[in-house]
Amino acid sequence: MFKHFSTATGNWRATALVAAGLAVCLSAPGALAADETAGHSTAEATTDSKAHSTTLAPPASAVSEQVVNYHPLRPLIATAGTLQAGGVEELAALGFRTIIDLRTPPEGTASETAAVERAGLRYVNLPQGGAWPGSNDVAQFQRLLEEAEPPVMVHCASGNRVGALWAALRLKQGADLDTVRSEAYAIGLKPARDSQLRDYAAGLESPSNTAPASQ
């Protein structure tokens, strides 16, 4: 079984790696959700043999309203807002193996941890507040996605914080702003955060971030 890991303690209690498959899906701009890529080859989703047999994130039509704002982002990654009563069990039945929760402890992470562990899944908490994600958050998020057993559910309360963290990661990877904005808003990023998104993108393009290191 997959146990709880909190980024606050930094202690893995259990690890399952299907890294290559998630790494490909993480950055592949053409790798859309399962319901948008009917008939795509498994090689398009991943190059890892272990991930070839992995359950894909299901289409939105297969998920109930217990999983608020469900969005199949990549073949092995989906996003959402609140997981209402029964939502964790539904995700487990749909084949999800890892849940990454971006909410803070006062929002109910303890009860979700218990529900996820009862369902036999792995729970990870990477708490995000109202500020735009910092470089450490982005690095941890990328590592978590690459190391998690898929399919992976990433959620917060509405999708807003997931959209922000995903956008920060994709921009850091070099994706263009228009593509990132489209993906972030589909996830649930609120329009009020557009200035934060643009400022972050501009900061990555500033001379201090793009100049080659001195020899």
Would you give an account of this structure?
- With 215 residues, this protein is α/β, with parallel strands linked by helices.
- The chain is built from 10 helices and 6 strands.
- The chain has helices spanning 19-27, 42-45, 49-52, 87-93, 109-118, 135-147, 160-172, 177-187, 194-204, 207-210, and strands at residues 5-6, 71-74, 77-80, 98-101, 122-125, 152-155.
- Helix 6 packs across helix 7.
- The longest helix is centred in the middle third of the chain and has 13 residues, at 135-147.
- The chain is globular, with a radius of gyration of 17 Å.
- The N and C termini lie far apart (48 Å).
The name CATH uses for the topology is: Protein-Tyrosine Phosphatase, Chain A
Q: What is the total domain count?
A: 1
Main pleated sheet: 6 strands, mixed
Number of strands: 6
| Share of helical residues | 40-55%
Distance between the termini: 48 Å
Q: Regarding quaternary structure, how should these chains be classified?
A: single chain
How many individual helices?
A: 10
The CATH level-2 architecture is identified as Alpha-Beta Complex
Overall outline = globular
CATH class group: Alpha Beta
**Average pLDDT, to the nearest integer?**
81
Strand content: 5-15%
- The secondary-structure class comes to alpha/beta
Order of helices and strands: EHHHEEHEHEHEHHHH
Sequence stretches where pLDDT stays below 50 over 5 or more residues: 1-21, 29-53, 210-215
